[in-house]
Specification:
The protein is mainly α. About 45% of the residues lie in helices and about 5% in strands. Helix 1 packs across helix 4 (about 70-80), helix 2 (about 25-45) runs antiparallel to helix 6 and helix 4 (about 70-80) packs across helix 7 (about 165-175). The longest helix is centred in the last third of the chain and has 21 residues, at about 135-155. It is globular, with a radius of gyration of 16 Å.
């Protein structure tokens, strides 16, 4: 059996404690919010339209994986925990629905009835990916540009950088697994 890639290995609980602590820092929260707002503006300039209605969130069925940084996972989970629960179609600020299991095996557990229940706080990879033909070049360029900025954020704040699969990260970062 071949060794797994670094992004397929689950980080140790001590690392998750660091990322959760960093995600709770006001300056990190502020920088990540500004980072995602900048990214959203850049994506809007790409003229992409979501045509698959959440099919890409069914990772196994769609044939791809979503990679994120561990800090993004920790920040995302902090936002989910801080919001009151709400339906997936809740208006902005209305809360996030907390699922127990993904509706489809190998899918994002935050996709409810084919829709993202956490659209406002989704990670970089979710924000920049569109399956629309002809958008691949600018998507790749934006992904590389913003991944570099995210890495710089880690360096500026002396936060260990870890790139991993979204589903594995959500599982590994779960507070019950860190106790």
């Amino acid at each position: 059996m071949a060794p797994s890639a670094p992004w397929d290995r689950a980080p140790e609980p001590r690392c998750w404690a660091q990322w959760h602590a960093a995600a709770a820092r006001p300056e990190i929260d502020q920088e990540l919010r500004a980072f995602y707002a900048d990214l959203d503006r850049a994506v809007a300039g790409g003229d992409a339209v979501c045509q698959a209605s959440g099919q890409c969130c069914k990772f196994e069925q769609f044939g791809h994986r979503l990679y994120v940084t561990a800090l993004e996972v920790a920040w995302f989970l902090k936002q989910v925990a801080a919001a009151p629960p709400g339906p997936p179609d809740a208006p902005e600020g209305g809360g996030y629905r907390l699922p127990q299991f993904a509706e489809t095996c190998g899918a994002c557990p935050y996709q409810i009835s084919g829709r993202c229940s956490t659209h406002l706080i989704r990670p970089l990879g979710c924000r920049v990916f569109f399956c629309q033909a002809g958008t691949e070049a600018w998507q790749h360029q934006l992904y590389e540009q913003f991944t570099a900025q995210l890495r710089e954020l880690h360096e500026r704040h002396a936060i260990e950088y870890c790139y991993l699969d979204w589903i594995a990260g959500l599982s590994a970062a779960s507070p019950s697994r860190l106790e």
